[in-house]
Amino acid sequence: MVKEKLDIIYEDKELIVINKPAHMLTIATEDEKINTLYHKVYEYLKKKNKNNKVFIVHRLDRDTSGIVLFAKNQRLKELFQENWNEIAITREYIAVVEGFVEPVKKTITEYLKETKTLLTYATKDNSGKEAITEYEVIKRSKAYSTLKINIKTGRKNQIRVAMQNMNHPIIGDKKYGSTKNPLRRICLHASKLEIIHPLNKKTYTFETRHPREFAIFEK
Fold this sequence. Notes:
The protein is an alpha+beta fold. The protein has a single domain, classed as Pseudouridine synthase, CATH 3.30.2350.10. The chain is built from four helices and eleven strands. Strands 1, 2, 3, 4, 5, 6, 7, 8, 9, 10 and 11 form an eleven-stranded mixed β-sheet that branches. The radius of gyration is 18 Å and the shape is globular. The two termini are 33 Å apart. The mean pLDDT is 94.
């Protein structure tokens, strides 16, 4: 396995923020224990000091790239997770989706549940968990649209479900309706995270550039 160098966006004595590549799990599963972002961050910090610890605050899907926040102590991790929707004041993504999206701006509110096969879907009534997704078109053509997306809730696969239900699935997202996959990945990237630190109450903003491969959609 090729050892990928961590793309560290920010690090201090309490936090470390990583730009996760696509095709990498955030945390371990039964089938994969080693090739995960958590394991790589753990190894990196242990090399610096054998007493270092690391705790995952939130996660991204395997094929989604972008910003992932880790805490270096358990108490801070718990404070983040207990109030995540209030602490994470901006969670911005870039998505390239199929087709010409209109209107150019919209807020989508859905109520999500999960099937026994772990597929997330929007309920026809309001019995699921509320998911609020805002999007704005950056560029569009007949074939595709590039969107800036902000989520106000952190539901599993909520962006992917919202785009599928608009009949504009995210390119590469076969699970949620896409028939195109030119990049062999889901074209979804967590590009900006703005948080209020639960202890010092300072606001931190972390940003990444769009993945280079997304440039093929601009030609």
